[in-house]
Design a protein that fits this description.
The complex is a heterodimer of chains A (632) and B (186). Chain A has five domains: 136 residues, Glutaredoxin (3-Layer(aba) Sandwich), CATH 3.40.30; 211 residues, NADH-ubiquinone oxidoreductase 51kDa subunit (Rossmann fold), CATH 3.40.50; 93 residues, Ubiquitin-like (UB roll), CATH 3.10.20.600; 88 residues, NADH-ubiquinone oxidoreductase 51kDa subunit, iron-sulphur binding domain (de novo design (two linked rop proteins), Up-down Bundle), CATH 1.20.1440.230; 55 residues, Alpha-Beta Plaits (2-Layer Sandwich). Helix content of chain A is 38%, strand content 14%. Chain A contains 26 helices and 20 strands. In chain A, strands 2-3-1-4-5 form a five-stranded mixed sheet, covered by helices on one side. In chain A, helix 20 packs antiparallel against helix 21. With 186 residues, chain B is of the alpha+beta class. Chain B has a four-stranded mixed sheet with strand order 2-1-3-4, covered by helices on one side. In chain B, strand 3 and strand 4 form a beta hairpin. The chains are: A alpha/beta (632), B alpha+beta (186). Chains A and B meet through helix 3, strand 12, strand 16 and helix 19 of A and helix 2, helix 4, helix 5 and strand 4 of B.
Chain lengths: 632, 186
């Protein structure tokens, strides 16, 4: 057993002889994605197969190490979710992808016993066909700058000692023992850290505003209500490195003079909830949370609360209402939560990723943090890269990285619906979820940062990056987001409640062929009205996807409205199935397949479709063997 | 779990609610965790339980119903024995999650409005995002996540469950099934 105090104060010294970095270790990714694909079976197989091979299995970090040991551990999300389950072997530096339970025997025999890589399980770059042995030669990892995500890929999230061995809780100790609240606020301000949840407000200013409040009771809340569909960065950090969230919360609490903290986690993330709760329990057991933090006599509490499924609760004041047991409806600001928040007391709310950065800033200093990223947006940002892209997963890059680097190099290029590389297939990237906008080919070299994105009508948001190929209908995408915000509007502001409903109806008009020359004007005017007339971020940004797609894909809207045509064939109502009269041999297969008897024709004569009866189900096109049915 | 008759025993129902309320010290601020715990127990929020909670916390029933109807996670109607959740987050949406939903609705005879099958065996619902975007499109059946799903695979999974449950694919649910679904709620 380590001496905890000594370990936190000087992990290197206290841990001098430990097995850290000496012993061979098999790390099985236990993020949501890999677990869905059978990572737990892989983990169990490793335990039994290693023992069977004569090597010794060790399941936890121990102070003394022996030569023939193999440590098997789980890790948080390693980010390369599409290729899971992932297994890495250190110090060999091997990364295996798509590992199944049956593959474990080979890995044990070839890698652990003989020290060779199992080639068939290595990652093969879909674009270059090159086989990648580990993290360094894999573009997906090698081109990233992983700081927040780095520890997620090897730490055992359920082992508090391992976190401490790697310097964990050292920053919290520094904050409590060596620094004053003013110094902490100043350091965060100097680092230029901006809130990673979307708004990009300087974290140091928020803290300072709460610190100067004269109140005996203050609160710090961690916003883990990652409601943006298509984003899962916070989930991965809470699952993969829950102690960094607690440590960040402790530092924030110390900085403003609070002794109660709370993590608000989205209920759709059961694993994150479980790991956060476990981490709090472990930290309490080790005396890190409790009544005498680091021997200072100060107390610190941390609670984990599960959300109940409302997107608007990601907004600060709505989240506070939700914690107080109310409907999650926002209220006007000011007063800002830093002045009057939870139970009317000064409260700060920080995103998961923001808090994870805080630990590093205290450890390495604000200058190191500032040395990456841009002047206005320092540091790194995690993005959830998904959609039609070869390597989907979590990526972390410095602010200022161009979109091209993320999509084409790290992401490995755009894919078609079958998952094959489509070199000319890039159409757009949707950034920032339902509050964000679209970036097109012309933005591929735009450096991604708060200001540059705002200038083109998009926003960083929480960091969802959804790549879309040429087969995606942009009007349908706008409708998708509008349906989401319309459903999630809390109903407090008339313009948000009714406006989003009308915007959705107008988009349906476009998609279903009822729109006319005025529809786009109406969409534009109403969209701007909703932006102005809503209280919180949800309403203020709800029209963004519509306005942004109208700005960059106006032609596509016009085709829908004036030509009654969707170039991607996704809008069913605009389909005009016709039988090619030259090709049709009159076999009658389509006639039999049609569920509404819309097809007529004599035998061996070309058939016809009656558009009045046709429901555009596509049954005829599937039935036709000579592809004579077109336009569906 | 104690086996109860088909009709839920009222006394027992409120006993469980009481122990949950005690655990949260009857604090109105704990309303959301209280409702979550109750839903965990009953799989939905029965109306009389909500009224009872309002009384015990000394708040107007409107407030409890207001909260219960505001959040998407609270169900005011019982759900089926197997809950199928289709992710319709952005990533799943662009990777064609809607055809999966349509296939499931068609297979089970459910719809956007009628989410649960009459035999109380299946509930089909959509969720905004499960955060497993790397595996899109994703469905979750009883907490088990299935990634890169196709309409055909989704239907095959339903078939498997139906076989496990001992219901012939086309048959209307046997009464025995209804009973066990009721038991699951009790």
């Amino acid at each position: 057993m380590h001496n905890m105090e000594a370990l936190i104060a000087d992990p290197k010294k206290a841990n001098g002889k430990s097995q850290l970095n000496q012993v061979r270790r098999v790390i099985v990714c236990a993020g949501t994605g890999c677990m869905a694909n059978g990572a737990m079976k892989v983990f169990e197989n490793f335990k039994s197969q290693i023992a069977a091979s004569g090597l010794r299995v060790v399941l936890e970090l121990r102070p003394e190490a022996a030569g023939d040991e193999v440590r098997v551990s789980k890790s948080g999300c390693q980010g390369f979710c599409q290729m899971g389950p992932l297994v890495s072997v250190v110090p060999d530096g091997i990364l295996y992808t798509k590992v199944k339970g049956e593959d474990v025997a080979d890995i044990v025999q070839q890698t652990l016993v003989k020290g060779e890589a199992v080639e068939r399980l290595l990652y093969k770059d879909p674009a270059t066909r090159q086989i990648c042995r580990g993290f360094e030669d894999n573009h997906f990892y090698a081109r990233q700058s992983r700081f927040v995500l780095h520890e997620c890929s090897f730490l055992d999230p359920e082992d508090i000692r391992e976190y401490m061995v790697h310097g964990g809780y050292g920053s919290a100790r520094k904050a409590f023992v060596e620094m004053s609240p003013e110094e902490i606020c100043k350091m965060i301000l100097d680092s230029g850290l901006r809130g990673r949840g979307g708004g990009g407000f300087p974290t140091g200013r928020k803290w300072e505003a709460a610190r100067i409040q004269d109140s005996a009771k203050k609160y710090v809340i961690c916003n883990g209500d990652e409601g943006d569909p298509g984003a899962f960065m916070n989930r991965s950090v809470m699952e993969g490195n829950p102690h960094s969230v607690i440590e960040g919360l402790m530092i924030a609490a110390r900085a403003i003079g609070a002794n109660e903290t709370l993590v608000y986690v989205r209920a759709e993330y059961p694993l994150a909830v479980a790991r956060m709760r476990q981490a709090v329990k472990d930290a309490e057991r080790e005396g890190i949370l409790g009544n005498n933090v680091f021997g200072t006599g100060m107390s610190m509490k941390c609670e984990v609360m599960e959300g109940a499924g409302a997107f608007v609760c990601g907004e600060e004041t709505a989240m506070i209402a939700s914690i107080e047991g109310q409907r999650g409806m926002p209220r006007p600001k000011p007063p800002f939560p830093a002045q009057s928040g939870l139970w009317g007391k000064p409260t700060i709310i920080n995103n998961v990723e923001t808090l994870a950065h805080v630990c590093r800033i205290l450890r390495e200093g604000p200058e190191v943090f500032r040395s990456i990223g841009t002047k206005e947006s320092p540091g790194t940002k995690t993005f959830a890269l998904t959609g039609h892209v070869a390597n989907t997963g979590l990526v972390e890059v410095p602010f200022g990285t161009p979109l091209r680097e993320i999509v084409l190099n790290i992401g490995g290029g755009v894919t078609d619906d079958a998952g094959k590389i489509w070199k000319t297939g890039f159409k757009a990237v949707q950034i920032g979820g339902p509050s964000g906008g679209c970036l097109t080919e012309e933005h591929l070299d735009l450096p991604l940062a708060y200001e540059s994105l705002r200038a083109v009508g998009a926003m960083v948001g929480s960091g969802g990056l959804v790549v879309m190929n040429q087969g995606t209908c942009m009007v349908s995408i706008a409708r998708f987001f509008m349906e989401f915000t319309q459903r999630e509007s809390c109903g407090k502001c008339v313009l948000c409640r009714e406006g989003t409903k009308q915007l959705l109806a107008l988009l349906d008009d476009v998609i279903e062929g009822r729109a006319d020359a005025h529809t786009m004007d109406l969409l534009d005017k109403l969209g701007r009205a909703v932006q102005v007339g809503s209280l919180c971020g949800l309403g203020k940004t709800a029209p963004n996807p519509v306005l942004s797609t109208m700005r960059y894909f106006r032609k596509e809207y016009e085709e829908h409205i004036f030509e009654k045509r969707c170039r991607t064939g996704r809008c069913k109502a605009l389909l005009r199935p016709e039988i090619n009269q030259e090709k049709c041999k009159g076999c009658g297969l389509c006639l039999k397949a049609c569920p509404t008897n819309a097809i007529t024709g004599e035998k061996k004569q070309p058939h016809h479709i009656n558009p009045e009866l046709c429901i555009k189900c596509g049954a005829c096109a599937t039935a036709c063997k000579i592809h004579a049915i077109e336009g569906i | 779990m104690a086996s109860t008759p088909i009709a839920v025993d009222r006394a027992e129902k409120f006993e469980k609610v009481c122990s949950i309320l005690d655990r949260f010290q009857h604090r109105p601020s704990g309303l959301i965790p209280i409702l979550q715990a109750i839903q965990h127990e009953y799989l939905y929020l029965p109306e009389e339980v909500l009224t009872y909670v309002a009384m015990s916390l000394d708040v107007p029933p409107a407030r409890v119903f207001g909260v219960a109807t505001f959040y998407a996670h609270f169900a005011l109607e019982p759900k089926g024995k197997h809950v199928i959740r289709i992710c319709d987050g952005t990533a799943c949406h662009v990777k064609q999650s809607l055809p999966v939903l349509e296939a499931l609705h068609q297979k089970l005879g459910t719809s956007e409005k009628q989410k649960t099958t009459p035999d109380m065996l299946f509930t089909v619902e959509t969720v905004a995002c499960l955060g497993a975007c790397g595996l899109a499109p994703v469905i979750v059946i009883d907490e088990q996540v299935y990634g890169q799903i196709t309409p055909a695979r989704a239907v095959a999974l339903i078939e498997e469950i139906k076989v496990q449950e001992g219901v012939a694919p086309a048959a209307i649910a046997a009464p025995a099934e209804q009973l066990s679904a009721e038991e699951a709620h009790a």
